Amino acid sequence: MARITLQNLAHSYLRSPRDPADWALKEMTHTWTDGEAYALLGASGCGKSTLLNIISGLLQPSQGRIFFDDRDVTDAPTAERNIAQVFQFPVVYDTMTVHDNLAFPLKNRGRSAAQIAARVQKVAQMIGLEDMLQRKARGLGADMKQKISLGRGMVREDVNALLFDEPLTVIDPHMKWELRTQLKGLHREFGHTMIYVTHDQTEALTFADKVVVMHDGRVVQIGTPQDLFERPAHTFVGYFIGSPGMNLMPARIEGDRAIVDGVALPLGARYGAVSGRVEIGIRPEFATLTDADGLPVRIRRIEDVGRHRILRAECFGREINIIQREGESIPAEGPRVAFDPAHVNVYADDWRVEGEAA
């Protein structure tokens, strides 16, 4: 296992990049803790796979350095980085049995037959393949083959890191849930440093200790699922995480109040001068309908999703979403929406502004 440090790292697929848009990865410096599970989360094209391939050695960065602990591996080939990588589509040896597929990395490193047997049995049991060890991989479905790929990635105990590039894409929905649970269990059991690329927020939030949210080639926030939900560092994080995502409204900030279209709303912190394009962000979970103070809203649609309802509304011509729990009612006339001050975030030019205790 290794601590992974990215130092002034950036990459462009162009020979002579000139503009910010020419860089697939904008310059970044980050350190990822030894033994933690990270998810690289973002929309297609944001740079997730580029960053993963640089860490694995499949791609040479245009600038910057990569360290595993204190060792500079920037110029080291993949084979010398002592990593295991699982790709989006399963890579297995069809002519081998499931057992021999799992054992292959250990045999290559000269492990004893007893060590191989014990390790293969343990990993196979954890991913539900113990009854299939003597079957040939040929003829197995994509689900089972990807399980083999995952198991082969996990079978070595001495790797610096385990890298997963959208490994559950070909898996059916029920098995996705099962494999996410098993991967989490394997991480708790073995303590490998894991980096998991996905565009699926459910996968990221249920798998990772820390989620690395990427947008337009940048890492815009690294944090726990709770951090991303309660304190999105960037408006993209607020929009991308959550269903529905965070509501954003243009505002003017005056101390411990936000002024939205002339209506004053209390904030849970006090702010100095906030300049630029200023917005407040509030999760639908922290917005409440009222017939008293708040912003006037017009309910356009109600979606009942079981334990709660999603109210699709309009406020001063802008769309706003409100999550209403069981037993809560909609005012018959003149509904308004109020926000929990403790959960209102302030943004300037898309980045969160930290306030002081009110």
UniProtKB/TrEMBL annotation:
Transmembrane segments: none
Keyword ATP-binding: yes
Domain called ABC transporter: residue spans: 4-241
InterPro entries: AAA+_ATPase, ABC_transporter-like_ATP-bd, ABC_transpr_FbpC, ABC_transpr_MalK/UgpC-like, Mo/tungstate-bd_C_term_dom, NA-bd_OB-fold, OB_MalK-like, P-loop_NTPase
SUPFAM superfamilies with a match to the protein in the record: MOP-like, P-loop containing nucleoside triphosphate hydrolases
Similarity section: Belongs to the ABC transporter superfamily.
One GO term describing the cellular component: ATP-binding cassette (ABC) transporter complex, substrate-binding subunit-containing
Name assigned to this protein: Carbohydrate ABC transporter ATP-binding protein, CUT1 family
Keywords of this entry: ATP-binding, Cell membrane, Membrane, Nucleotide-binding, Transport
Recorded superkingdom: Bacteria
Gene Ontology molecular function: any one: ATP binding
Source organism of the structure: Phaeovulum vinaykumarii
A matching Pfam family: OB_MalK
Phylogenetic lineage: Bacteria, Pseudomonadati, Pseudomonadota, Alphaproteobacteria, Rhodobacterales
